[in-house]
Amino acid sequence: MSYLTLTGIQKQFPGGVVAVADFNLAMEKGEFVSFLGPSGCGKTTTLRMIAGFEQPTTGRVELDGMDITDRPPNRRNVGMVFQAYALFPNMRVADNIGFGLRVRGRDRAFIARRVGELLELIGLPGKGDRYPWQMSGGQQQRVALARALAFEPQVLLLDEPLSALDAKIRVSLRAEIRTIQRQLGITTVYVTHDQEEALSLSDRIVVMSEGRIEQIGTPFEIYNFPRTPFVARFVGTLNVLTARVIDATAGRLDVGGQEMRATGAVGAIAGSTVSLALRPEILAMGDGEPDEVRLRGTVDEVTFLGAVVRIRIRLPGDAGVASVDTFNNPHLAVPARESAVTFSFPSEACLVLDGAGRDAVAAAESAI
Amino acid sequence: MTGRDDRLPAGLDRPTSAPVRPTRRGMRQKTAASWLLLLLGVAYFALPLVGTLIFSLRAQPMASAWTDMLNDPQVWSTLGYSFVIGVITIIVSVVLLVPTAFWVRLRLPRLRPLVEFVTLLPFVVPPIVLVFGLITTFSRPPLPLTGTNFGSDVLLVCAYVILSLPYMYRSVDAGLRTIDIRTLTEACQSLGAGWITILWRVILPNLRVSILSGAFLTLAIVVGEFTIANFLARPMFATYLQQISGNLAYQPAAVALMSFGITWGAMGVIALIGRGSQAKVEIGGAH
C-alpha cells in the first residue's frame, strides 16, 4: 500500500481557473519525488494541497491510510520548507528549530537535546544562539530544514527551497538535503522548476504542465524516454529539426533535401511537415555506425565550453539548426565555420513530432 | 601621441557638454541652508516651550511653581490615574486591533478599504459628540454605567479606544506590511501551531515596534485628553490641569512642561527599543 496518495485531485479557483486537473500519484514511504514544471503549472498548488493550505475542489489526499483531505494544516504532521525560509525573526535559531516541539508540549530537556542533534545534522553546531538575520541564506535554509524535521513529520514538503540562493550554494545544499533525506528515510515531495535539481535528487519525477501531469518516471526514464513533446522539450536540451514526410508508413522523411528513416510509422500524411526532436548528446560528428542516420550541414558556430565543444550545424533549406556536443580533445581539430560536416545519430533516438507539436507516433497509435 | 582616442571618429573624442561637478563652496552653502532650516524647525517647536519654562520660573521664590507641583499629591494621583487608563486603553486596543488587522490582511484583503474607513471615523466625530452619545446611551438601562466610578472608567476606556483607533490601527497595519504574515502563518501551521500560538508567539513579537509606536501615541492622546474625561467626571491629568489653571498662574506652566517631558521620554523609549529591530525583521528571511 502506498504511503502518500493523491487521488483525482483537482483545484479550481474562483473565476473558473483550473490550476490542477486530475492529479493522481502514489508515493512509497521514504521516496523522494519531485514536481517539475514551469511557473504556473500547478506544482506548488498541489504541494499546498498536501500541506493543507489549499483545499482540493475534488479528490483525496491520504497519508499512511488516513484521509487527511479535510484536516487543517496544523494537524497533518507534515513538515514544510518554504522558498523564503520563513524563519521567525524574533526567535533565535534554537528556538526556531524547537518551535514545533514546544507546540507539541515536549519538555525543555528533550527539546534542547533534539535541537542539538539537528544542529549537528545540518552542519551548524553551536550556532543555536544566533538570530536568523545573523546568518547567510544557505544557513537560514538549513535551519528551516531542521525546523521542519524536528518533530519527525511523516512527510517533508519543500517548495523551491533553493531558488533564492546563488548557484554554488544551491549545488552543495541540494546534495545535503538528499543526504539528510536518505539518512532519515523521510518521504519527501520537492517542488522545483530546475530540471537539474529534479534529475539529481529524485527517485521519481512528476513533470507537470498547465495543471496536468505530463509524465511520471525515474530521472532516467523522464530524460531518455519522454512520452510527450512537452517533456522532451522541458527536460534537457533538445534539437528540433523540420522534416517533410515522404512515406508515412515506412517512416521516410526529407530533412533539408536528405532522406532518412524514422523508427516505425510516422503518424502524419505524406507531404506534411513534422519536427524531429534530438538530444545533443546522441548526435556524433562523422558518419557513425552503418545503421545510423547521417545528415550533412554547414558549421554555423563553434563554442568552446571547456570540457565540451558545442558545434552548431545549419542544415540545408529550412530544416533548421542542430547542436552537437563533443568532448574537448586537444589533439583533434575542431571544424571551421562555414565548413561542410556530417553528423549521425541512431534513428530510434529521435522523437518525431507532428506539425501541432504532438508526438506523431503516439497520435498515430491513438487514431487506430 | 595626441592623447585622443584614435578608435573614435574625428570630432567625437570630446564630450559635447562637460559634466557638472559640485564645488566646495556650493556644498558648504547647501550644508548651511540645511542647518538653517533645521534650526528654524527646532525654534518653531522649542520657543513656545522655552517661553513656558521661563514663565514657570517667574514664581517667587524662583522654581517654587515646580516644587509646589512636585509636592502636590493630586499631580501624581491624576497622572497615575491617566497612565493606568492609558495602559488599559492600549491593552484593549491591541487585543482588539492586532487580530483584526492580521485577519483582514491574511484572509479578507478586500475588506481593507472598509476597515480603514471605519478607523478614520474618530477623526470625523468630535469628542464632545462622542461623550454625549456615550452618556445618553449608558446612563439608563440596560447598561447604566455612568452611575458608578467603575462604569465611568469603562466608558472612558472605550471612548479612548475609539479616539486612538486611527493611530493604533495604522501602526499595526504598517508593521504587518513589513513581515510576510502569510508565509509566517503557514510556517507556524505546518509546525502544528493554532491561531493563538501564531498570534502570541510570532505575530505580536514581530509587531513590537509598531505596537509600541501606536501605544505611545495612544498614551499621549489619553494623558492630554480633556473633553471626555471632564464630562465623565474622571480625575484625569488634563482635568486637573484645567482646574488649577483657573486658580494659579505659574504652576500650570510647570505641570504642562512636566507632561511634555514624560511624553518625550516615552517616545525616546520607543526609539531605543525600536533601534535595530526593523533590520532583524527584514533580513530574517520572512520576505
Describe this structure in words.
The complex is a heterodimer of chains A (368) and B (287). Chain A has 368 residues and is α+β, with helices and mostly antiparallel strands. Helix content of chain A is 25%, strand content 32%. The two termini of chain A are 35 Å apart. Chain B has 287 residues and is an all-alpha fold. Chain B has helices at 24-56, 64-70, 73-106, 112-124, 127-138, 149-177, 181-190, 195-206, 208-224, 227-231, 237-245, 251-274, 277-283. Chain B is flat and about 70 Å long. At the A-B interface, β6, α2 and α4 of A face α7, α8 and α13 of B.
CATH superfamily of the largest domain in chain A: P-loop containing nucleotide triphosphate hydrolases
Name of the top-level CATH class of chain B: Mainly Alpha
Give me the side-by-side strand order of the main sheet of chain A. 6-7-8-3-9-10
Summarize the amount of helix of chain A as a percent range.
25-40%
Q: How many separate helices of chain B?
A: 13
Compressed to H and E, one letter per element, the order of chain A equals EEEHEEEHHHEHEHEEHHEEEEEEEEEEH
- At the fold tier of CATH, the topology name of the largest domain in chain A is Rossmann fold
Going by CATH, the architecture of the largest domain in chain A would be 3-Layer(aba) Sandwich
Q: What share of the residues of chain B does DSSP label as strand, in percent? A: under 5%
Architecture per CATH nomenclature, i.e. the level-2 architecture of chain B: Orthogonal Bundle
| N- to C-terminal distance of chain B | 56 Å
